[in-house]
Amino acid sequence: MVYTQKIQNAIHFSIKTHEVYQKQKRKGKDITYITHPLTVGLILSQAVASEDVVVAGILHDTIEDSVDEKKVTKEMLAKRFGLPVAELVDSVTEKDKGLSWIERKEFALEEIKAFSHDSLLLKSADVISNNTELLRDYKREGDKTFERFNAPKEESIKHTLQVIRTIVEGWPDSPLAQELTLIASKLQEIGALFFMMNNKASIIEYCDYDDKKELECPICGWHGRGEANSDSDFCLDVSCSICDKMLLVVNYPLA
Ligand SMILES: [Zn+2]
Questions:
Q1: Lowest-confidence region among 101-110, 123-132, 167-176
Q2: pLDDT tier at 17 (50, 70, 90 boundaries)?
Q3: Once rounded to an integer, what is the mean pLDDT over residues 196-204?
Q4: What CA–CA distance (Å, rounded) separates 14 from 182?
Q5: Is the entire prediction scored with pTM above 0.90?
Q6: CA of 89 to the centre of ligand 1 (A)
Q7: 198 C-alpha vs ligand 1 centroid, how far in Å?
Q8: Which residue in 244, 213, 249, 247 sits closest to 230, CA to CA?
Q9: Least CB-packed of 39, 223, 229, 248 within 10 Å?
């Protein structure tokens, strides 16, 4: 069976939590929240994740976003959907809401480093759903899109790029890795002017260029050896392999 009883139950449970009990909306928009967990389930399903991962995707925000009168707990999910689903949802649930934005985000990055492949898949689908929506809104509304978030535009882009880098480094062959890096390069483009001003690419002469030297991306934190592009007759450049930020410009010797 494709549309299993367990998936049907997860959809029903998620609709109750996000829609029926609180008419939750997407942040700063008049769009019903339930579209997001359903999209995450759809992405996971397309990525041929297991039934439990698809179910966890549909339920992934129910602990974090449930209202106090209808509180959803890990134990409740374990009872209805089994322990593996409950643990997956719990792994992507933000733990300490009392911390500052920066502290919470740094803590989240540390947690991703310890994720199982299934948690990485779930987190990837969440990032893809949220940021595809963001990029789509940005196309229509420009910088206004970022006003509804808690952090300034560049901080929020930088954090997402760090999340993507951490996921892709944790599982380079994940079925969603390519889609994540595509989103990373589009996000980097939005902040490019700012990132360029604050983190200029180094310019060096060809005689000083060593293609085995490790580079580090100041935006997403990737390090490794980038592949050099040579679209120009005068120089070649090396960009971050996750977010595409230009890291190095190498001038060719003058003939
Ligand atoms: Zn980068």
A1: 101-110
A2: very high
A3: 93
A4: 29
A5: yes
A6: 28
A7: 14
A8: 249
A9: 229
Ligand 1 centre to CA of 216 (Å) is 8
Could you tell me the end-to-end alpha-carbon distance of the chain, in angstroms, rounded to an integer? 67
Distance between Cα 246 and ligand 1 center (Å): 8
**DSSP assignment, residue 202?**
E
Mean pLDDT value across residues 224-230: 88
Q: Which DSSP category does 19 fall into? A: I
CATH architecture for residues 1-93: Orthogonal Bundle (1.10)
Burial (Cβ within 10 Å: 0-12, 13-18, ≥19) of residue 78: middle
Task: Please tell me the distance from the alpha carbon of residue 13 to that of residue 117, in angstroms, as a whole number.
Answer: 25
Q: In this structure, what token pair is assigned to residue 74?
A: 């890990």
CB atoms within 10 A of CB 248: 18
How far is residue 215's CA from residue 40's CA, in Å, rounded to a whole number?
34
